[in-house]
Amino acid sequence: MTYTPPIYLDSCATTPPASEVLEAMAAVHAEAWANPSSLHGFGLAAAEWLERSRQRIAEILGCGGNQVIVTSGGTESIHMALLGAAADGPPGRLLISAVEHPATAAAAGQLAQRGWQVETLPVDHLGVVDLDALDRLLAPPTRLVSLIWGQSEVGTVQPIERIGRRCREAGVLLHVDAVQVVGHLPLAFDTLPIDLLSFASHKLQGPRGVGALLVRPDLALKPFIGGGGQEAGRRGGTEPVALVAGLARALDLCDARLRAHGGRDPIADLRNDLLQRLLQLPAVRLSGPDPFDPSGPERLPHHISLLMASPSGRPISGRRLVQTIWQQGYAVSSGSACSSGRGANPWGLAPSPILQAMGYPDGEAASGLRISLGPWLTPADLEGVPGAVERGRLRVIAGEPVG
Question: What proportion of the chain, given as a percentage, has pLDDT over 70?
Answer without folding.
Answer: 95
